[in-house]
Amino acid sequence: MRTSALLECRYCVQSHSVVALDSHVTATEVLALRGRPAWTEVFEREDERALLAWVDAVAGERGGVSAEVGAEMRAHHSEASVVELTLLCAATMMLNRYCTALDLPTSPGTLQRLADEGLL
Predict the structure, then answer these.
(1) Residue 100 contacts residue 11 (beta carbons within 8 Å)
(2) pLDDT digits 0-9 by tens, 56-72
(3) How far is CA 82 from the centre of its chain?
(4) Domains of the chain by range and CATH?
(5) What confidence tens digit (pLDDT) does each residue in 61-116 have?
(6) Where are the beta strands (DSSP E) in the chain?
(7) Distance CA 18, CA 113 (A)
(8) In terms of C-beta density within 10 A (0-12 exposed, 13-18 middle, 19 or more buried), how is residue 50 classed?
(9) Distance from the first to the final alpha carbon of the chain
């Protein structure tokens, strides 16, 4: 969801928000992944913070990932996990562009769930 928020993909952010809620992510955490408040104010676990910084670097910046962010990521995640998570982030970026370009509509059920949770 963080990747989709960085790429401003409305469809994916809304859809992933419901999936996150169903996976026991709190509404506060969902909002932080969307950028309000900053995730740095909500997530405390070092492995989660390393992953979110990595996603911000991969999806939200140009060029390579800084050595500092890379070292922090590798301190908390295996090399295989770093590769897999980077691939997931890149695939999500591609899907974000696809969904945004086509202006895919969010299902009424998803919109209602988000409204019920105060996440619209």
Answers:
(1) yes
(2) 999 999 999 999 999 99
(3) 15
(4) 2-105 (1.20.1290.10)
(5) 999 999 999 999 999 999 999 999 999 999 999 999 999 999 999 999 999 999 99
(6) none
(7) 7
(8) buried
(9) 15
